[in-house]
Amino acid sequence: MNQTKNEVKVIFFDAGGVLFDTFLKGDDRIRYILLERGYQKSKIDVAIMKAKQIKLTFISNWNEEEQYYKRYYGTIAKELGEIELTNELFLFTHFAGHCELFPEVKGLLEELSKEYRLAVISNAMPSMDWIFDRLGIRKYFDSIILSAFVKEEKPGEAIYNIALNHAKAIKEESIFIDDKIENIEGAERVGIRGIYLDRNRVNLLELLREQQLIENPIKNFKNEITD
After folding, report:
1. What is the torsion angle, in degrees rounded to the nearest 10, for the CA atoms of residue 133, residue 143, residue 154 and residue 49?
2. Whole-model pTM above 0.85?
3. Across the 227 residues of the chain, what is the mean pLDDT of every consecutive 10-residue run?
4. pLDDT confidence of residue 129
5. What residues pair up with 101 in beta bridges, in sequence order?
6. What is the Cα–Cα distance from 210 to 146, expressed in whole angstroms?
7. What is the C-alpha separation between 7 and 110, in angstroms, rounded?
8. How many CA atoms are closer than 13 Å to the CA of 38, on its beta-carbon side?
9. pLDDT of residue 225
10. CB neighbours of 172 closer than 8 A, spacing ≥ 6?
11. What HEC string does the chain produce?
12. Looking at residue 4, what is its pLDDT?
């Protein structure tokens, strides 16, 4: 499915891995705190592996997410013999507090929002919603659809249809950008053109230039890319 720039009205984005990410991953955030506390890496790894055995059920609100993570971090703390570590791990290693925008994203969203309507489709826990406020990007999106709130996940077709309805978007006038091939394929099954972002090859700005969805305003993005 090919579209000209003028035929695209709505751009849907995945969030984590496309707009922002945690550049120190979850297990490494936990290891950092615990190594500073003086625990041996081998014991930390055993504790993390035990926590990973906790079954993750579908989480649809913050209370459920909080309970899950307190069980998760509590398991690690108990394994290390210091249950008081639970709150420290919860406060300082939780995903939502560690996300950072990719360098090109803020300026790119500013430019795109002048020409397109923008929206998000993300498989995420409820706390993902707060990240858009913390990073100052909620204002750019007409719609933010998180799996936690709609109880559907990519690549299932339902979440894409929910997103289209919520954004009042027409699938033939929409595109979806994700860093997972299976989610691109899910979008295309409902008739949305999918574009795969491989950050090992290009960043989001470069991808959209390749797709001829944005011009080449180098002066607007110079500081965003080089900072």
Report:
1. 10
2. yes
3. 75 98 95 97 98 95 97 98 96 95 97 97 98 98 98 98 98 98 98 98 97 70 45
4. 98
5. 20
6. 28
7. 20
8. 2
9. 45
10. 3, 7, 191
11. CCCCHHHCCEEEECCECCCEEECCCHHHHHHHHHHHCCCCHHHHHHHHHHHCCCCCCCCCCHHHHHHHHHHHHHHHHHHCCCCCHHHHHHHHHCHHHCEEECCCHHHHHHHHCCCCEEEEEECCCCCHHHHHHHCCCHHHCCEEEEHHHHCCCCCCHHHHHHHHHHHCCCHHHEEEEECCHHHHHHHHHCCCEEEECCCCCCCHHHHHHHCCCCCCCHHHHHHHHHC
12. 63
Model pLDDT, residue 219 = 46
Token output for 53: 């055995």
Paired tokens of 50: 């035990």
Q: How many CA atoms lie within 13 A of 117 on its CB side?
A: 15
Residue written as tokens 């109880």? 151
- pLDDT in the model for residue 208: 97
User: Rounded distance, CA 80 to CA 92, Å?
Assistant: 17
